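Weekly structure sync, notes
Attendees: PL (lead), two postdocs, one rotation student
Agenda item 3: pending single-chain targets
PL asked that the sequence for the first pending target be pasted directly into the notes so everyone works from the same version. It is reproduced below exactly as submitted, 128 residues in total.
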Amino acid sequence: MLRRLHPSRPLLHCGWRRLCLLKQSLFTMKVQSPEFQSLFTEGLKDLTELFVKENHELRIAGGAVRDLLSGVKPQDVDFATTATPAQMKGLFQAAGVRMINNKGEKHGTITARVLMVLYLTTLMVMKI
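Predicted structure, written out during the meeting:
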């Protein structure tokens, strides 16, 4: 079954309650809502600067994206980055950022505390 969220961007229905985006359906959307702007605390700005300085992308991910698109302020924020776990650890150690709960490292996730708990995961390509 083919569905569309955007007139020129089709979605392919891939079984029980799961939609697989076709390659041509990916697009970028700029969000400038008050809820989005409220996320940029001093801690988050400092974190962003760490990644930008080392030429790594940092993207908001997970439920925070859903909340922002729904006009709701996210309760927590997860991030995806182009940095590997080893690179993230190096960045955080050099900047004195506390890392906690290293159990997610084998999955590419580093948990950092910058005035709040943040989950940062390396970007991955998963084949279906």
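Discussion points:
- The CA atoms of residues 100 and 111 lie 6 Å apart.
- DSSP finds four helices and eight strands in the chain.
Action: rotation student to compare against the earlier draft before next sync.
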